[in-house]
Design brief:
Elements: E1 2-4, E2 11-13, E3 17-19, E4 27-31, H1 32-45, H2 47-56, H3 58-71, H4 73-86, H5 88-101, H6 103-117, E5 137-140, E6 149-152, H7 154-161, H8 166-176
Antiparallel strand pairs: 1-2, 3-4, 5-6
């Protein structure tokens, strides 16, 4: 069974349309490709609106993501395991090239790991950004200096990589020097 898209006026099979309960033939009026293009165009034209919404609701979205990931961790794990088993060659090639692409990162992590195990460097138990006493992770600003790290909790480390608390960390690092 076919349907004509209202946007591009091309006749396509029903599988090229999203489902819609109230729609004619049980599908939407616009094909998936046209809908994606419209959504992308809307996003480009309203980027500031999306950024403002994210900034205003950031904490709420983070909490939702944490809860969702916690509630669906088993499903996600099963999906990833299935996906990896169906795409073994793809992942094998990726894993082989990953060490080459991220050589400096991996080398710095290995040196830091060995230094903490042999007690050459001591892991701080307090996050330098939020001050919470918890298990910490070392954040490298320069992979050429593998033992020069900032110890922070998982949440703050994620935010550092998302560039949301860089200023605060730069102030802390400059104060230590």
């Amino acid at each position: 069974m076919n349907k004509i898209c209202k946007t591009c006026d091309v006749e396509k099979g029903i599988s090229f349309f999203n489902k819609k309960n109230g729609g004619k033939l049980g599908v939407e009026a616009h094909c998936i490709e046209c809908k994606k293009l419209k959504q992308k165009e809307y996003y480009v034209n309203n980027k500031t609106k999306f950024k403002e919404y994210y900034q205003e609701n950031r904490e709420k979205q983070i909490e939702y993501s944490k809860k969702y990931n916690k509630d669906h961790s088993d499903e996600k794990r099963k999906y990833i395991k299935k996906h990896r088993s169906l795409n073994k060659d793809k992942y094998k090639r990726y894993d082989e090239t990953k060490r080459e692409r991220h050589f400096y990162k991996i080398r710095a992590r290995e040196i830091l790991y060995n230094a903490t195990k042999t007690k050459k460097i001591e892991r701080s138990l307090v996050c330098v950004t939020c001050g919470i006493e918890t298990k910490t992770e070392g954040h490298h600003y320069d992979y050429d200096k593998p033992l020069d790290v900032v110890w922070c909790c998982r949440e703050c480390h994620d935010m550092i990589h998302a560039n949301t608390i860089m200023y605060k960390l730069e102030v802390i690092i400059n104060d230590e020097k």
